[in-house]
Each structure stands twice: as C-alpha cells, then as structure tokens.
Amino acid sequence: MSDTKSRIKKQVKSHIPKDWLRELRIIYRIGLETVNGIKRTGWINLAIVTTMAAILTIFGALFRTTMSLNSFVTELGNVLEISVYLKDTAKTDQIADKIKTIEHVERVKIIPKEKSWNDLKREIDVPDFENPLPDTLHVKVDKPENIDNVFTQIKKYEDVEDMNYAQDIAKKMQMFNNVVHTVTLVVVVLVAILTITIINNTIQLVIQSRKEEIEIMRLMGVSNWYIKIPLILQGAIYGFMGALIALLPMNTVNNGLLKVHEFFVVPAPILANNVVILAMFILAVGFGAGGSFLSIKKHLQV
Fold this sequence. Notes:
The protein is α+β, with helices and mostly antiparallel strands.
C-alpha cells in the first residue's frame, strides 16, 4: 500500500510544472512587496489618492462636457440651413441642381414664392397686393464648420439676390467647442505632470526607506525587474484608486449634463460616460505606473 502511494506521489510530482510554481511564488512576492510599499508610505497614501482624484475629476468633467458640446454643435448643424433668395429672372430648378453639386451640401429644398406668400398671409394680416417675395432655396450643409465655404460659393451665382443664415450662432458654438477642446488637452498635460510629480516623490520615499534592502537584493543577484515591478505597481494602484474615487463626482457631472440634453431636446452622446470613465482609468493607471518607472530610473540605478 505504501509503495503504491509513493509511486502515485512521484507520478503527480513529475506532472507538476515546477516553473509554474516558481512563477507563482514570484508573483506572490511581488504582490507582497507592493502592499508593503503602500504600507510604508502611511498617511501620505490618502493625500496622493485624493489629489489624483481631484485632478482626474477636473479632466473627466471637461472631457464629458466636450462630448456634450459636440452633440450640441452637431445638432445645430442639423438644423442650420442657408436661405438663398433668388432673382425674379432666375430658373429655380437649375440653380438648385447647381448648388447640389457643391461639396458638403446635403440637401436643397425649393420654397416657391407663392407658398412663402400664402404662409405669410396666414400668419399676419397683409394688404392685398402682388406677391413681393422671391423664390427661396434652403440649403442644408453637412457640418457647421463648412457653412462659410458653401455660403461663399453660392454667393458667386449671378441669379442669387441675397443670402443669410445664423452665422453668429454657428461661429460662437464652434468657437466655444474649440476652446473646451483646448482646455481639455491642457488639463490632460497637467494631469500627466502632476501625477508623475506626485508619484515620483512618493516612490522616492519608498526607495529611500528600502535602500539597504534593495542593495542586499542586488548583491544576491535578484533580477532588476523583481525590484522594479512592485514600485511600478504601487504607482498604478495609486492611479486606479484615484480614478475610483473620481467616479462619485463624475456621476454627478454626467447626470447634470443629461438633464441639460433633456431640457434642450438634444440627444446625449452614446456611451459618453463609459468612454470618459475608461479614459480616466487608462490615464490614471498609465501615468501612475509611468511616474513610478521614471522615479526608479532617476533614483535607483537598476
């Protein structure tokens, strides 16, 4: 019976991949060193995470606002049309066909002067005299930023008497959207700089507290990556926790923007909040790990 047990044990052991066991032990030790590194930092952990959460909240709020503004600009583009008033001698159908060939023009709708005159008489009491209104074309452009270009091209036609569109509204919306885009990019840069600076100082403290231990590990021939990875993971964890806390204010921002969309009857961007949250976590973890890596290169020659 004992011989049978011994033989079974040998067969089992022979099928156990020893490399796997070694890798599991290494992963366990790396995880343990990461946790110990966070413990060594003490109360500073709270300051690091809350600061990162505040920075990420600002980024997330601006990014989410930018996405909503894009929706408003797109919706404005869907309702913005150029009104083209033709001369009495103009051949309306031919002019409409020409305008349709212009790049960025999506649709041309003909409004006969008889219809415009009848609509006007229904709305207000006008004297009974000959129709003074011209044939009108409503030109739909694909994007608000292309309206100026299309407007300029149509204006060159000899049969066009006058034109107009809500130019000021379109330009102001586009300008405001561009400003928010720029501010968002600036905030991303600030997030990177502040995150890397905070993580750099924190990891420096951890390195200083473990300096002798790290020297002993190097003398024992321990792999450089075995020393680096716990510190990089520590920075990534700070970023992850900061992003996790930032979810609370971001939820409030998202709900507020959804109410604005509902009030103006403008569709909210699809999965906008999910995209913002994903971007926050990627930036936070990436910059956290990157800050740790830079700190290791600067303060630890491994």
